[in-house]
């Protein structure tokens, strides 16, 4: 099994998702689990509309929501074709109806909390992972969508939740492993999860506490060995690449030093050199 992670620009539109499908198709023998981000700039837009709704700017929030809906519909339609998109349309429509109602509720209350922010922000990965899974299925890759909130368990620190590894490992074994055994390609969103009560959380963006914890690779030792294997292999390959790159730079530097012509160093300042030139010119005159 390998874990293949694709960021926002990798799933930003139909062409990008089509490239992802081609990449994954080439790794089917390794039983890939695909993790995707929201489409490029979508999470930022979701956070903006949540903030707007919290400030009572309902029209602004709903307008942004409609623009995202149109973008996701267009992408799915281009990927799936008319027949498949007709079947898929209602699923996306239901998600956007839920988002619309959520924004109206936030606007009515006139307040946005970290918990509600997570709920809004999660729609990006929910939508992109559904579209990618459907695109895989349309291309014969046997894609199977998994809602990350069903398998990734965190604490309740909204907007910066910390994964609970043992519980997450158990759920991954229950939900993901059977799909792999059945020859399917699980597709799930990154960034989103749920606490033990099933309430949506996000694991933080940029310099969150989770990002800091991941700087310490000891977290891999807490994971199930099957799930940890791709990370260990990836880290090992990355270190080899670093050493080879560093060695190459040293060799290039040595070659440059050997063949670079020696440059004489001037022992006078610019003013002293000018004075000497003027004196020599005066003596010659």
Can you put this structure into words, describing what you see?
The chain is built from nine helices and seven strands, in the order βαβααααββαβββααα. With 285 residues, it is of the alpha/beta class. It has two domains: 2-215, Carbamate kinase (3-Layer(aba) Sandwich), CATH 3.40.1160.10; 216-261. The chain has a four-stranded parallel sheet with strand order 1-2-5-3, sandwiched between helices. A three-stranded mixed sheet has the order 4-6-7. Strand 6 (192-195) and strand 7 (200-202) form a beta hairpin.
Give the gist of this structure.
The protein is an alpha/beta fold and 285 residues long. Helices cover 61% and strands 9% of the residues. Helix 1 (14-25) packs across helix 3 and helix 2 (42-54) crosses helix 3 (58-109).
Helix and strand arrangement:
Layout: E1 2-6, H1 14-25, E2 32-36, H2 42-54, H3 58-109, H4 114-121, H5 123-138, E3 143-145, E4 153-154, H6 165-181, E5 185-189, E6 192-195, E7 200-202, H7 209-214, H8 225-259, H9 270-284
Helix pairs in contact: 1-3, 2-3, 2-4, 3-5
Task: Provide tags for this entry.
285 residues, alpha/beta, 2 domains, 4-stranded parallel sheet, 3-stranded mixed sheet, 9 helices, 9% strand
